[in-house]
From TrEMBL:
It comes from Panaeolus cyanescens. Gene3D superfamilies: Galactose-binding domain-like (2.60.120.260). This is Uncharacterized protein. Keywords: Membrane, Transmembrane, Transmembrane helix. The lineage of its organism: Eukaryota, Fungi, Dikarya, Basidiomycota, Agaricomycotina. The chain crosses the membrane at residues 292-314. Residues 379-404 are annotated as: Disordered.
Length: 438
């Protein structure tokens, strides 16, 4: 929901009129109905023939407002009008056959922000068409602090600070019926008008409130009587107070309700500020060029990657250092559970004779006594007397090779075939001998 509207009065010189338009005072329209007086001090009217006007603006959504005095002539409503944005026709509001101020003649929404041209064509046979104002939502890039526009700021704008005793009512404003409830806001402009709403669904009796400007003395204003209890016509766009001829610069205003729940509550709908602008805080610091920002980001990124690479490289090198043999210091790593037998020659049984302790027959267990004599003793060694001794293979005729002793100790590994009186083959005898080396 748009909270700020730029108001363009019918007297604005940027509006280009075509046709027999005449300027009228608003005095005769001020008390016509319950929708508040027209904006500004005049309206433009055309009561015969074809006429129109155009207006260029930088904004998005908007509306054309005026005073409705339409009537039906036979089957037609007089006057007739059409509205266009950039040459495209937009919907027009239905004509009302009652007198009403601040009537929307046409409204455009979902219009992209930017430069646009509004065109309104009017045809009147007898009854006048009264044009009062144009309002539109400004583009973000058009909110120049030096524009000095007339701006309407709704109750939901960011400038308002409401206490907890205020609440939103029917999307029409912020309401309070608590004595002492205050709202504060800041603005910059030459004058300010505060608009309110009077709803007949709440107490009608008049009540009081005050405002303070820039910390000055409180100034009282009255919320007028809404009429007898049977009146059901509410009031909209009601001007509660105005402050004129303000000095340039930022001002702070606070509004405080002085009534209670038995009298008319205060409903704040909007404020209208003449020559409104927002102060821009200047700074002497110059922003860095985009190339310097990109270069700094990329440089920092590559620096982080370099640090991560060096950390992993250092850990990798340190791990590899423990896996290498330092020949200069005479250290090597030995796996005690692995022997590469391919580098050694297996000695013959004859060369290893006398190196083995004779295998003895294990005695039978006492539990074996009395068993059948044909039972086979699993621990007995078969008689090999009838079997001729095997001749050693020429491959095993060479003496065993020994590992050269190191500075501290040496290991002698002897691999041999089983002795001749053992049937099972492939038994390997390993003798480890440690010799101290001085």
């Amino acid at each position: 929901m748009t909270s700020r509207w730029i108001l363009v009065d019918d007297l604005d010189k940027r509006i280009e009129y075509v046709g027999a338009w005449v300027q009228k005072s608003v005095q005769e329209f001020a008390q016509w109905d319950n929708f508040g007086p027209p904006f500004g001090s005049t309206v433009h009217a055309v009561s015969s023939g074809n006429a129109g006007f155009s207006f260029r603006f930088n904004g998005s959504n908007g509306a054309v407002l005026g005073t409705s005095t339409s009537s039906d002539i036979g089957a037609l409503i007089d006057p007739q009008w059409e509205c266009f944005i950039d040459g495209t026709k937009i919907p027009s509001a239905n004509a009302t056959l009652t007198l009403r101020n601040n009537q929307k003649f046409c409204e455009w929404t979902n219009t992209p922000a930017g430069e646009h041209t509004l065109t309104v064509n009017v045809t009147s046979a007898q009854y006048p068409f009264h044009f009062d104002q144009i309002r539109y939502a400004p583009s973000s890039d058009s909110q120049n602090p030096n524009t000095r526009d007339v701006v309407s700021l709704s109750y939901n704008d960011r400038i308002f600070n409401f206490e907890s005793s205020w609440r939103e009512v029917h999307s029409m404003g912020m309401m309070t019926a608590v004595k002492g409830a205050t709202t504060t806001f800041a603005f910059s402009g030459s004058s300010i008008s505060l608009y309110g709403t009077g709803l007949t669904s709440y107490p009608h009796a008049p009540s009081n409130a005050t405002y303070q400007l820039d910390g000055g003395d409180p100034v009282a204003f009255t919320l007028s009587d809404l009429g007898p209890a049977g009146i059901t016509v509410s009031r909209f766009n009601e001007v509660l107070f105005e402050v004129q001829n303000l000095q340039q610069g930022q001002h702070t205003m606070s509004v405080t309700y002085e009534g209670d729940s038995s009298v008319r509550p205060l409903i704040l709908s909007s404020i209208v500020v003449q020559n409104y602008y927002e102060e821009v805080v200047s700074t002497s610091k110059k922003s860095l060029p985009i190339s310097a920002i990109i270069g700094g980001v990329l440089g920092g990124f590559f620096l982080i990657l370099t640090i991560i690479f060096l950390i992993f490289w250092y850990r990798f090198r340190r791990k590899r250092a423990y896996q290498h043999v330092d020949l200069k210091e005479g250290r090597r790593e030995i796996d005690p559970f692995y022997v590469d037998v391919s580098t050694y020659k297996v000695p013959s049984p004859r060369e290893l004779s006398g190196e083995f302790e004779p295998l003895t027959r294990m005695s039978r267990s006492s539990s074996m006594v009395g068993l059948d004599k044909h039972l086979v003793d699993p621990f007995a060694i078969p008689d090999q007397s009838s079997t001729p001794p095997r001749r050693p293979h020429p491959r095993y005729s060479r003496p065993p090779e020994r590992i050269a002793p190191s500075r501290t100790s040496s290991f002698e590994i002897l691999l041999s075939a089983p002795p001749p009186n053992v049937r099972s083959s492939g038994i390997v005898a390993v003798r480890l001998r440690s010799d101290s080396v001085s």
